[in-house]
Specification:
Gyrase A, domain 2; 34% strand; 6-stranded antiparallel beta sheet; alpha+beta; Elongation Factor Tu (Ef-tu), domain 3; single chain; 6 helices
Length: 294
């Protein structure tokens, strides 16, 4: 990403969770530890089914007395409803602020040029009154600014940033191996831990109970993780959502996201050959191993 560019992520939405019980409410349902979130630190987290299957992913940023949840906008209404189901009689308010706030991606180099920052994942500071954080998943994703839409262009001008198309940011995210588009296609299809959330700092195995914790911990502790979500590259033909991937007539995976930035769930072991091409119904693909995957 260019140090002078600001990538306005119009496909991201913002929920605001507030109230006396907001912290405990989130702690009891999310995959990460809400105690990590403060004025100077943000985190990446997910919401799982009771069986540990993936539902939603989001970044959590402290804002005033509550928390911003930065989520893919296509899922924001469903996430709102899911959180409301868990709220019960708790003193928690959930607001959809997607029409008021916008998410802006900045380069890693731009973040490092800011005053009084620490070069660590999740570190959060303020650009005037607005939170800006180094992405807690991977430094190569740069930083994110959560800002009121009315202040956006004035702030970009003040910090000598020019608005740029978000494609460059999402191209980078795909190259790194981190899905951020069409993640609703993963919903209830794979376990959260199979989404590489441990490596992306989205699961805390020491925090205690949360929704889906039992199966997630069992897969981890018994070394049962045999499948991972991986980016794939089309070598020939075309791919379709849900179709199987084969290695010499043996099924080794399934395509889950086929549009723009494709990802598949892949069965792997230590001898898996990432140099080979693999077959789908009407084409061939390669499976790309991100450099941060163990």
């Amino acid at each position: 990403m260019n140090i002078n560019n600001a990538y306005i992520l119009e496909d991201r939405g913002i929920l605001f969770v507030d109230g006396k019980d907001a912290k405990d409410f989130l702690q009891n349902i999310i995959s990460n530890d809400i105690n990590k979130v403060s004025e100077s630190n943000s985190c990446f987290a997910s919401l799982f089914t009771p069986q540990g299957k993936f539902l939603y992913e989001f970044l959590i940023i402290k804002h005033k007395k509550g928390y911003f949840l930065d989520c893919e906008k296509v899922q924001i209404n469903d996430l709102f409803k899911q959180l409301s189901l868990y709220k019960l009689r708790l003193d928690v308010q959930i607001l959809n602020l997607s029409n008021e706030f916008v998410v802006v991606a900045l380069s890693y180099d731009k973040f490092k040029s800011l005053n009084n920052i620490e070069d660590k994942l999740g570190f959060t500071t303020k650009l005037r009154e607005d939170p800006v954080l180094l992405d807690p998943r991977n430094k190569k994703l740069g930083a994110r600014l959560i800002i009121n839409l009315e202040k956006l262009y004035l702030s970009l001008k003040k910090f000598e940033l020019k608005s740029s198309k978000s494609d460059e940011y999402y191209d980078l995210s795909y190259t790194i191996g981190i899905p951020q588009k069409n993640t609703h296609k993963l919903k209830d299809k794979i376990f959260g831990i199979e989404c590489n959330f441990e490596e992306l700092n989205g699961i805390d195995f020491k925090k205690g109970c949360y929704v889906g914790q039992e199966n997630t911990a069992r897969i981890k502790l018994k070394n049962k993780l045999s499948k991972r979500l991986m980016p794939i590259k089309i070598i020939q033909g075309k791919i379709n959502e849900g179709e199987s991937i084969y290695n010499k007539n043996i099924e080794i995976g399934k395509i889950l996201i086929n549009e723009n930035y494709p990802f598949a769930i892949i069965k792997f072991d230590n001898n898996f050959n990432y140099e080979n091409s693999y077959e789908v119904n009407n084409g061939k693909i390669k499976i790309i191993k991100p450099d941060w995957v163990k």
